[in-house]
Structures are given as C-alpha cells and as structure tokens.
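User: Fold this, then the next.

Assistant: Folding the first:
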Amino acid sequence: MKRNKEIRYIKGRQLKKPPSCVSKNSVLNYASSPPLQVTKTTPVLRLLETIVARGFRRIFVTTPTGILQGVVTPMEIVKYLLCKSQENLETPVLSIFSTSVSKIMRKDIISIRESESMFESIRLMKQKGINGLAVVDDNGLLKAVLTVRDVLEKFNYSLSVGVLRDFMSKSPICISSDRSLEEGIEIMVKSGYRRLPCLDGSNPIGLFSSRSVIRFLGGRELVKEAGKTLGELMSMSVISFTVRDIPVLDPEMSVPEAWETIKRSSYGSALVVKSGSLEGFITEMDFLKAIEV
C-alpha cells in the first residue's frame, strides 16, 4: 500500500529512558509524539478523512521541514462550511473540500517550548482555556502535542474530591433537535462553544458539536449525500449530526468517579442529568480545573 505523501508523521527516536537533561516534570515526558502534520497544500477533504479515521481533534500545519505554521480543528472546518454556504447555496458540497488547508488553518497557535515543565503547561492551558498545546523546540520545529487528555491520563496529580455540580458548566447553551445545521453552526460560532447539548423538547438526547459534524463530513454518511448542494446540506436537521451515545452523569457523582467514566468514551465530555432534566455539561477542560498539583 502506498504511503500518503501529504500527511506525515514526525519521526522520533524511541528512548527507553528520558535523557538526563530532561526533568521528571518536563512536558516531553507526557506529550504525545509523533504529532500528525500536513502541509498547506493538503486538500481539506483529505484532512477530513484523516480526522475521522484516526480520531484526531487537531492537525498541525508545517513546512516540509517541520516548522509549525498553523493548526486545523473541526471548528475551523465548520466555520469554512458556513462561510461558503453564505456565498452560494447552490455550490456542490464535495467541491468546496478540494481547497487547500492554507485557506482554513488558524495561525494564532499557542505553543510551548519542549524545555518547559508540566506545571507551566497546565497553568497555560487553564489561563488560555485551551485543550491542546503544540510543543516546539527553540527553532519552531514541531516536536509533540500536549492535550488535556495527556495531562489527565499520564501526569501524576490529584483530582478534587468535590462533585460534578461544583465543576460542571451550569445552564449550558443548548440546541433543539429540529433546528437546521446552519443554525447549529451559527450558534457555535457566535457563542464560541463547539459542543451543544441537543434537546428534544426539554429532554436531553445527545451532543451536537463541531466534531460530530466532521464525523459526518469525513465519513460514509457524506457519500450518501454526495449529490447535495450546500443549501440542502445546511438545511438538514441537527439530529443527523448529533451523537446519541454520550455519557450521562448525575450531578452528585464524585469528580474522580466521573472522570473514570468519561475517559472510557471518545468524546471527552458528558451530559449532567437529574431526573431527566439537563443540569449541566462537563468537559475535559472542567476536569483540568479540578486538578490539584
């Protein structure tokens, strides 16, 4: 099978032990490597397929030599989808994804040097409200990526002994299952929230998110809808893009127990429900706030 030349992994040496100059709490001991990287000329459709197939939440854009230039997450892709639909609703859906990554990538990347400590990395994540940091060397070469899940699964820390109610997002912005995809993306873009609990009336039924939209666009479902125009796609109900099997937790559940439940899922979030009513919403970032180091 031929290796795709547009999507590359940075090659790194496998070390049995960290170098003596790398401290125990260095970010390099906990970050994920090699990170997935693409060049500016990679088509968006190829990016979509890779995100879905490999479950990535972010893909970095670098020069051919590995110098960091940008990043693409599901949010950049849905923003692009909304923008193109506002330009021309008659555009065939598949045609817009032939554009290159350079058209949609975000350049304002928050990165951290490979020499930094985990304590500084966690502080920066909390301060900026971000769930992933690019790890670079002194020359801007991409070395690894540190995510909130890396912190929660690998680093030595203690989670607060509190309950979900103390850390969850209360009164989250939600979306009704009968709203259109266009309305759903507009709400995400205007609010800045990439995850919206989906309600059928007042009953929470799942999660509508930028990532769930990408799963549709980069998966088999899009093949079934390949003949649609942007107008037809954007008028589809958000229910077609809603994940139903998201964890549902009780607000009085302890934080450590809740994390044990969530880390077994691939969504990194959960609906917090009491007596059938949505009480709140919790994400990996909320668990980061509960970390005691």
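Now the next one, as you asked:
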Amino acid sequence: MKKSQHYIWRNYLKPWTDKDKIWCLRENKLFFTALENIGQENYFYEALPLNSDELNLLNIYISKLHPTAHRTIKDMLNLYIFSSGVSIESRKQGIEDYHTKIEERAIFSINKLYQKDCTFFDQEAERLNFSTYLGFQYSRTNKIRNNIMRLFEIQDFRKNIPDTVRPDVFARAMSLLTADTIGNWAYSKSKIFLLENNTQESFITGDQPIINLKSNFFDTGEPAKELVLYYPVTPNIAIIIAETDKEVIPINIDRANYLNNKVYEISQNQIYSNKENLIKKFITK
C-alpha cells in the first residue's frame, strides 16, 4: 500500500521544478527539495468509517442541493462508504486510487494549457474531465479538510450537530462531496480564461493550488456569494474559471503580486516556486 499520499499532485508541481527539485516555504522555513517531500501525509486519504450521525449529516447536506446534483453527490458518498468498509487496503488506498484516475483523465487538457490552448473546454468530454479534475484539485487538500473541521468551531453550526459527529471523519467524506459540487458548477456554468504572465514576478503556487478569489469566510464569517477560481498552471500561465470575465485582468507586476499574495494567504502552510526570491519575501520575522 502507498503510505505517503500527496494532497498536491506531484505532476502538477513539475513546471515549478529545477532538476526535479522545488523551492518550498513551509512554516516559515525556506528550502529546496524533491517533490516527494512536500504536500503529503501518511494515509491522508484513508476512508474512516462513518457513524450513523455523520452519515445523516452528510445526507442532510445532499438534500439541500439542487435535485439534479443528488445522483452524482450520492455516488461520491457511496464511493467513500464502499472504500471505508471493504478491506484495510481499500480503506487506506481506495480514495487515493480514485484521485489518480481523475488526474489521468485531465492530462490531455493540462497539456493543452501548457500550449496556451483552452479550446478543449468547448469539447464535451474534455470539459467534463477537466471540470471534474478542478473540483477534486480544489477540495482534496489539507486546507479544505481543515476548513471543514473549523466549521465545528462556529457556534451556530455546532449547536445543532450531535456530539457523536467527529469533525475529522466528517471532513474526509465532505471533501469528496465538495469536489463534486465544484466540478458540477465548473462544467455547467463556468467559462475558462487564460492568463499569461510575462513579468519578472512569476506565478507561485501553494498547498491549496486552486483558490476562490471571492472567498473570505473565515475573515468575515460570510460564505462566498460567487466562485472565481484561480489556478496557476505554470510560473507563466494561469487560468481563471468563472461565470463572467470581470476578474480577468491583464497581468502586470501589481496583478501578479496580488495573485501571489492570495495564494500565500489562502495556503495551509506551504507555498512553492521555481525561484527562491519569489517566496523568500513571504518569510515573516
């Protein structure tokens, strides 16, 4: 079984590497390392069995979604339940294997983005594959899991939740459901916009590689009212996934700095670059 499980796809980070190593700022410490050493935890995707109250809470969440989403969301929940109950190997490895399949299906689209070509998003099959990939890349991370667990710190949320609901176990399953919700939105409502960065301030990325530029829930307590997903693809190419182009601003030094700062602010505890100086400035004294 694969013990070390990456919540940041190593293939995604390769454009930021130099001789298979990458600059990483983790918990205020800067170092140059191999991809195997970052964005991973032992058995991160282990599907821990749900108790009846946890399952009930997840079903309540599903019931509040649009009916057209119920089937696919329930499929995700059933995948989690199946993985958690079949065998030790399935429990520890099943969700990780599923992520691998999602990533493999998106390789064609990612290679097109490297060529600055977004026309794949107009093709039904590739739009579906890439939208699914976006949903999982957004929600599979340590950051999203921790954000879900932080909901239990909010009194209005916690007061109606049984004490038997374990935040960590609930978050493991909920992150899968979130992936499907984001993917459905990207497929059915969004457009894709390419950003080219020819400045000296290259794009950095982080352990939350896809961020919602409109999200500030834990600053204001208010949920985001719209999705504007920003996804750096290489140090010089990024995309925005949104319903309109109002956040699509040409990249100059100021805009590149703004986007890099957002990546840093929203990251859990790691940011990455192909250049030491680009993330060195985020070291706090």
